[in-house]
Amino acid sequence: MNDFPRVLFVTPVAFNRISGGGITFSSLFRGWPKQALATVHNDPEPTLDEVCERYFVLGAGELDFAPPFDHLRRRYRAASAVSASVPEAAAAGRIEIASRMKSMALRILGDSFPERARLTPELERWIADYRPQVLYTILGSNGMMSLIEQIRRRFELPLVVHVMDDWVAANHRRGLLGPWQQHQMQRWMQHFMSIADQCLGISPAMCDAYGKRYGRIFQPFQNTVDLARWSPFAKATLASGSPADLLYVGSIFPNAQLESLVDCCHAVARLNAEGFAATLTIATPRDHAARYGGRLAIDPAVRIEPPIEDDEAFFRRIAAADALLLPVNFDPESVRFIRYSMPTKVPAYLAVGTPVLAYGPAATAQIDYALKAGWAEVVDRRDPRDLVEGLRRVITDMELRVRLSAGARAAAGRNHDSARLRAEFGDVLRVSAAKAVQKGVSRQ
After folding, report:
1. Which candidate, 59, 52, 58, places its Cα nearest to that of 35?
2. 3-state secondary structure of 7
3. Whose CA is closest to 186, among 121, 237, 234, 142?
4. Residue 203: pLDDT band with limits 50, 70, 90
5. What is the DSSP string of 146-180?
6. Within a 13 Å sphere around the CA of 394, how many CA atoms are in the beta-carbon half?
7. If DSSP codes are grouped into helix, strand and coil, which group holds residue 419?
8. Of the candidates 310, 307, 312, which has an alpha carbon nearest to the alpha carbon of residue 283?
């Protein structure tokens, strides 16, 4: 246990099998002793006990909208609470009114309400009982950052910051309160970047950009893949079936991949209309399917399914597909947000060697990676005909498929093997904890 410092993870995204962040954290911390890991979070997704068992779920006492905006949250909760005691139509009406009020206020004021954060006695006791040695975080909203700072100062913990997306460039860009909220966010970021013991990024591109932005050295850590376990599940044959089986797995966000995924659905419909048989399966969380399914399921050839949560079933499914899709939006707002991001699915895609069609702008890290490492057929401009032809090539061109599969498996071995990356990630936390011991602030 001495080799594993007690990590306190404070985060809006905890360990889970649903979100990209949740899967990434589960991968990086897998094998870390559970008694040396505790998580403070407000993630609505179900948490994963096989990696961490000690959780504190933030409530309104620790993190809430600042007055008077907290009134909207109370009203929404009150409307939800009465749903069991009033007729269904009346309950739905109350919730709808509260939701509309919140949406209207956000359109006027900005993309989020101001928050207030408080280290409550309950949370303080919970952390004190755990006796953490290092604080690891992906930061978050202004309120979450305020809470992180309160925890850091109270327990004098060394800080490791891990940045997943360029939300600093994308958030608080509209509304009456946007400039004020953005000013707060920038101050928090400058503060944390100046005091963090170590800084991590989700990709080499993010590390380069953030290193220049904040004058710090950033180390890249993203999702890993256990090659020793999953390489035997790699694609056995590269011959495509009929109809061709195309697959997209993962979340769907309007500021990340929605529009380009919609383009892919239309391209598959067009292939079928031209007599080229192909299907597209989209495996995504149910709430994402409910929200965007109407725009995606535009043809009988497009199917939407729940995510594959069993690891073995997941790897078998992506290896069985004829081609995997990696769509990225082209619009400036999306590019601003995800330009340095690296999807959680990429290491798994590469490990199985299934040919990939990447559709998105070369200015984003994931498309640039595909181009430079040669593991995907890339369509890097938004053109319906180019996309249709790209899909046709990645399905039918055997020489291309062999080349992409080999490039993918080579990139997985170079850049994503968990055997090496988990050890390196653990060393980051160990070094920070050791520095704290030297300074005499360890809580052992």
Report:
1. 52
2. strand
3. 142
4. very high
5. HHHHHHHHHHT--EEEEE-S-HHHHSS-SSTTHHH
6. 33
7. helix
8. 307
Residue 374 structure tokens: 């040669």
What is the tens place of the pLDDT at every residue in 381-432? Answer: 999 999 999 999 999 999 999 999 999 999 999 999 999 999 999 999 999 9
Contact 202, 161 (CB under 8 A): no
Report phi then psi at 181, rounded to 5: -65, -40
Tell me the pLDDT tens digit for each residue of 57-70: 999 999 998 777 76
Q: What is the pLDDT of residue 83?
A: 47
Round to whole Å and give the CA distance between 302 and 269.
Answer: 8
The three-point CA angle 306-237-242 to 5° equals: 65
3-state secondary structure 352-392: HCCCEEEECCCCCHHHHHHHHHCCCEEECCCCHHHHHHHHH
Q: How confident is the model at residue 350 (pLDDT cuts 50, 70, 90)?
A: very high
Looking at residue 80, its pLDDT comes to 47
Cα 288 from Cα 251, distance rounded (Å): 7
CA distance 239 to 260: 26
At residue 24, the 3 state secondary structure works out as helix
Residue with tokens 């997943």: 164
Q: Which stretch of 63-67, 134-138, 216-220 has the lowest confidence by average pLDDT?
A: 63-67
Per-residue burial over 237-272, b = 16 or more CB atoms within 10 Å of its CB, e = otherwise: ebebeebbbbbbbbbbbebbbbbbbbbbbbbbbbbb
Concatenated DSSP letters of 103-141: HHHHHHH-SS--EEE---HHHHHHHHHH--SEEEE---S
| Residue matched to tokens 């949250």 | 73
**Residue 236 DSSP code:** S
Give the pTM. Answer: 0.85
CA atoms within 13 A on the CB side of 43: 25
Closest CA to 192 of 131, 133, 135: 135
Q: What angle do CA 380, 168, 64 make, to 5 degrees?
A: 130
Whole-number Å distance between alpha carbons of 330 and 368: 14
With H, G, I as helix, E, B as strand and everything else as coil, classify residue 220: strand
One-character DSSP codes across 288-339: HHHHHHHHH--STTEEEE----SHHHHHHHHHHSSEEEEE---SHHHHHHHT
Which residues, 6+ apart, have CB-to-CB distance to 376 below 8 Å? 326, 355, 356, 357, 358, 370, 404, 408
State the amino acid at position 206 in one-letter form. M
Hunting for tokens 């005909």 — which residue is that?
385
Which helix or strand (DSSP H or E) is residue 67 part of? none
